[in-house]
Amino acid sequence: MSEFILFILASLGIVLALVCYGSVRSRRRRALDAAWEARHPRAAFESCGKTLHFYDDSHGNQVEYLDPAGRCYLWYPGNRVVLVGQWRCDESRVFFRYGYNTYNRVTGVIGGRWEPCPIALWSASIVEAVPGDILELERRLPFVLKPRPAIRSILDLVAFHRQQ
Predict the structure, then answer these.
(1) I need a surface site. Which of 39, 54, 89, 127 has the fewest CB within 10 A?
(2) 8 A C-beta contact, residue 98 and residue 111
(3) Is residue 146 classed exposed, middle or buried when 0-12, 13-18 and 19+ CB atoms within 10 A define those classes?
(4) Band of the pLDDT at 145, cuts 50, 70, 90?
């Protein structure tokens, strides 16, 4: 019986240590993110607070809302959920971080880390930028997006779905 109690106490100690480590790590991450934001305010970024429609040959259609608080909502072709992540930028790059449980099958990138992209390259595939979360991606998936055909505008995207 005493071995069992020692096992339980040791297990609880390990769990407590992991919880404390995660809490310290989260606080550190929030402090680093706040320092980044102070140096590179999102509000100054042209695409902040907009819904963006992208099209390129590798991904097809994509729509993403970049909220002013640093959250992003990606409507990716074939996904049955909106992919929620974080975004930030500096003078020449935009960065995205999606969950550890995410994977980009085109680029092979596994989520959980900040992924930088030069703003010029990132913005080259923008078809349209509309102020606000016009499609309410923060709340719902409008429908399962198809990668093709290329859609000219966000409103055409919604109209295209209604025709299907």
Answers:
(1) 39
(2) yes
(3) middle
(4) confident
Element (H, E) at 33: helix 2-39
Determine the pLDDT at residue 146. 82
> For residues 130 and 50, is the Cβ–Cβ distance under 8 A?
yes
Supply the DSSP string of 96-156, one letter for each residue.
Answer: EEE-TT-B-TTT--BSSS-EEEEHHHHHTTEEEEEES-TT-TTT---SPPPS-S--S-HHH
Predicted confidence (pLDDT) per residue in 98-114, tens digit: 988 888 877 888 888 89
Counting every residue written for the chain, the total comes to 164
Q: Which residue has the higher pLDDT, 113 or 66?
A: 66
Closest CA to 89 of 39, 42, 38, 122: 42
